[in-house]
Description:
The structure is a single chain. Helix content is 16%, strand content 40%. The protein is built from 1 helix and 9 strands, in the order αβββββββββ. The strands form 2 sheets. Strands 3, 4, 6, 7 and 8 form a 5-stranded antiparallel β-sheet that branches. Strands 1-2-9-5 form a 4-stranded mixed β-sheet, with no helix packed on it. A hairpin with a 7-residue loop joins β3 (51-59) and β4.
Amino acid sequence: MRKSSKLITAVAVAGLAFAGGTALTGTGLATTAPTTQFIGGQVSQSVTGATLAAVDYAFADADAKTKVNSITLAFTNTADGVKVAAAPSGGSGGTFSCTDVVANASTCTFAEDTTTTTVTETGYTGLTSLAVTAS
């Protein structure tokens, strides 16, 4: 094998090793719900008064996933009509208004805080914690 071929092969192998190592070093991702989920960072979730089976977030900015505008909550063995509240924290934005439980599910929709902002909000940004209460 020629010297230049060996050099090109060595550079290619080093590049692949670097790319492969970089791709596998991500941190901060949570793989289980309901304890945490990834939303441009990690979000802690807690529930009082029911068993929370899953949490799904929808975003006003689907590509960046930083502005939460809807939260779908799935419960286990929770009666229809149970009232649900979701209190976000750690970021900025309005609040969430949740539907009562129907078929073990509730949807919480973002409501802009019109008293403290001059800019139209499309979602809650910087969410780090979500406290869910079912009563």
